[in-house]
Each structure stands twice: as C-alpha cells, then as structure tokens.
Amino acid sequence: MRSEKKTKRKAGRPKEQKSLNTDDILRLALKNFAKKGYGGLTLNAIAKQTGVADSLLHYHFGSKQDLWKRSMKLVGDEIFRELNDLFAIIDDMTGLEKLRLFNKKIVHVSAKYPEFQQVVVQEVFSENPRSSWLIEELLVPIFGFMQTAIDEEMDKGSIKKIPKANLTSFIIGSITTLFSRSFQMNKMYDIDPFDDQQIQQHAEVINDLIFNGLISK
Predict the structure, then answer these.
(1) Is 201 exposed, middle or buried (0-12, 13-18, 19+ CB in 10 A)?
(2) Which tens digit of pLDDT belongs to each residue from 80-113?
C-alpha cells in the first residue's frame, strides 16, 4: 500500500478557519476592554469569543496593545467624522450655536459609543503610554471642535473667561457620566440612560445648565 505523505504547510499567514471581519473583532474587543479593563483582557479571551484561532488573531492584530489602539481608533475616528460632518454644515453659525450643537452631539455619541467613554475614563486617570496616545491621537482632535467654539466666544466676551481645564472637565464630565455610569444611574434612579427619551432629555438639560452659567450677563 502506498503511503501518503502529509504536505507541510509553509510558514506565513495562518490558515483562516472562518471569515474574519476585523471591525467586528475590534468592536467586540473594545466592549471587553471597557468591561474588564486593559489588564483583565487577553487576546486568547477575544479569540474564544469570536471563534477565531489565536494564531490568526495575532497575525491580524499583533499585541494586546495594538488591538487596544486599533479598537479605540476605530470608534474614535467615527466620532471625529460625525463631529467633522456636523461642523462642516454649521460653519456659518456663531460659536455659541456651535457649542450648543457640539454638546448635543457629544450626548448622542456618548450614548452610541459608551464603551469608548468607559475606556477613556479608565485610562486618563494617570499617565501611561496608552493614556498619552489616547489624548494626543483621539481626544485632542475630538474636543478641538469645542475648544475652537469656546475660544471664539471668549474673544468676543459673550461667555465668561473660565479656565479651559475647569470648563472642559465640567462640560465633558456632565455629558458623559450618565452613560459611563449607566448601571449606577439605573440602580439609583430607575432609568435607562440609553433610552431615546432619556438621551434627548439629557441633551436639553445639559445645555440649559451649561449656558445658564456660561453666558456673560
């Protein structure tokens, strides 16, 4: 009987066991980073959830840090594009009008991408390579839209000259906390922060509170 020789597969790209949708993997990874934190997640855990071989996951994403960066950049870029599209349309509005719409948009994107906000909260508490990358690559461009509108109105004297760090932390914190602490809000106040009515109400309340304290009288 003729013996059959097994053909040895050449080194290189791992054989795909299933179609790999990288965006789906990145979104799933981001949800897990938000839930478990950077230190609590492994590539092996993502592989098990997606049914993708470890070797294939490593081939496409490299290290855990690379996976973290790519998952944050995927969603961060989507948020930036939504804001960029908005500001292209409202270019002829005043800074105050732009700031109102920015606030409303951030409410909606925070509800749409809660995992992104949760990871931001986890990472920017202290200095580390991930937090520095996150601030420089994603947060500065995203919040640049707001800062430009604020600077415009401060120069005109239409809003109070509040230190940038205090004003930014107040605006962003008041907007995102409802979603980044969604379980707490649900447990304490019996609401679903991601309900459409709650999202709209939050946008209206935020602008009412912010502008009542911000506009010069």
Answers:
(1) middle
(2) 999 999 999 999 999 999 999 999 999 999 999 9
Residue type, position 190, single letter: D
Say if residue 105 is exposed, middle or buried (CB neighbours under 10 Å; 0-12, 13-18, 19+): buried
pLDDT digits (tens, 9 = 90+) for 181-197: 999 999 999 999 999 99
Q: Which fold has domain 72-214?
A: Tetracycline Repressor; domain 2 (1.10.357)
Which pTM does this prediction carry?
A: 0.86
* Angle at CA of residue 192, ends 189 and 194, nearest 5°: 140
Gap between the Cα atoms of 84 and 109, Å rounded:
13
- Cβ atoms of 76 and 58 closer than 8 Å: no
Nearest to 87 by CA among 75, 73, 97: 97
Whole-number Å distance between alpha carbons of 201 and 194: 11
CA 110, 115, 120: angle at the middle one, nearest 5? 80
Domains of the chain, by residue range, sit at 72-214
